[in-house]
Predict the structure.
Amino acid sequence: MSQERSQKNGPSLKKIDFKNVVVNKPWGYEYLVFQNDHVAVWYLYLREGAATSLHCHPKKKTGIILLKGEAMISFLQDSHRLRPLSKLMIRPGLFHSTRAVSPGGIALLELETPVDKENLVRFEDLYGREGKSYEGLDQMSPMPSDAVRFSVPEEGASHEYSLHGLTLAVEKISDLSALWKRDPEEVAAVLDGALMSKGNEIIVGPGDVGSLASLLRVAAMFPPPEGLTFLSIKAQDETRNAAAKAGEAAARVRKPASIRGRGPDLGLIPGLPWRFSVERTLSIFQQTCRNRYFEFEAAKFYNTGVMKMPIYLSVGQEHIPASIASVSKDFLIFAQHRGHSYYLSFGGDPAKLADELLHRDSGCAGGMGGSASIHDPAIGMFGHSGLMGDQVPIAVGAALGSGKRVLTMTGDASVEEDYVFGAMGYAATKKLPVLFICEDNNLSILTEVQTRRSWNMAEVARSLGLAAADITDDPWLIAYYTEQYLHNLPAFLNIRTCRHLWHAGTGKDGEPEWNRFELFKQELEELKLGKEARRIEEQARQDMEELWQARLQRP
Ligand SMILES: Cc1ncc(C[n+]2csc(CCOP(=O)(O)OP(=O)(O)O)c2C)c(N)n1
Ligand SMILES: [Mg+2]
């Protein structure tokens, strides 16, 4: 294999002296900053929006330290957002890709152990390099004179470097106890020496990256027999102050999750949006926008009098099914009167929904259901009868009879019906695969929850034996719970939300308690996805405007 590769790419990589070259990549560049017999340290720069291939090193472990900008690191199944000075270890064989998500691009250090540039398997690549090996000589240029190069100091001394508002130091030390006075948040990466077990096995060795505090904790019990050479990284004071200010600003926007009760923060998990991939976040937002603008267009035409039946719009709540459907669309669906966004999110055809509201034969229920009874066997969605809450026992019966996974949605009022409790209890007893969603907009037409009942539905569901949570309508939080609960059905999710328009019809009673659509967009700005979000919203608005125009032009 390596012979074949050296024939195609020129000399074997083992013969190239990486100390003197910069390797140009389609995403930016990288160069070697340090190498000894155990570990190679590379400096990588990625342009904004660029990404490394989804690749692995079957025989190498990789330590990553983010120095500048915000990165998204993706694995086969999940992604994590990183900010400086994030650090992580990637085991041999783990596929990963790093993407620059901040405007100035990102800079990072990668530690590879053992040193072997040929040990690379590319799986997916934005630049057509799938299955190809490391770059050849034609991609290399001379190292610039200002490039950082680490060198190892004398015992007890350190060599310091300044980079991206950080101080990096290579230190050689035999007695680590002197380091206890230092900031525990410093990053430490071992370059030489190791912490050894009593049985003489390496516990922490070259290429391992972590916090200085954890290194010292382990070293107190398992000291390095030969001392350590390690790289330490800490923020310079001005950088630290700027980060602290940014943190305070973020904390002002977001109240702590400990605030219980109805509100936009109930049950929020700090940092959750950063754990979602950009693609997934944007697809939830896109579906939300399509649902929302479908409703706005429907409202416009309702106001002209072309629709003869009442309309139940989901504006303010339209992102809830979008979030649930981002986890799985594999459900039979039993919603109630406020069901347009369920139909659209779970794969319903918007043209058929518009036709249904216009009472046409071509509607999803042949024009006979209307807004309150959206029905389409094509996507496994069953129309509501009008008797509040009766969709719940019917949904449980469907799960029992079909063995399929079922989603049933109620409001905070319909969930109060006695047959809902019996059906939930039966689902718990028979362990039926039903996800019960309550869109708790605090209103039964105009009557608030607190004037109707003193109990909490999530507690009732828990007492019946279901997994249950009472949360705000944050889109990431809904997706998170849906994902958790899919492995633990039956389960109940009470989602506190706000209806922005009248119970039936298109009027407005005033400002909603909170505006989740605006909060969603604010969070997207914080995630640096504002530009993409604006494009998606505008596209959805246009699509829905055109769709409704086209429906109305038909006879
Ligand atoms: C058994 C029954 N009682 C009363 C009604 C009249 N009704 C229709 S919708 C509604 C309020 C529904 O509130 P909720 O379930 O919270 O859903 P939301 O409209 O808030 O989305 C009521 C009282 C009904 N259709 N069925
Ligand atoms: Mg309600």
Notes: The two ends are 67 Å apart (CA to CA).
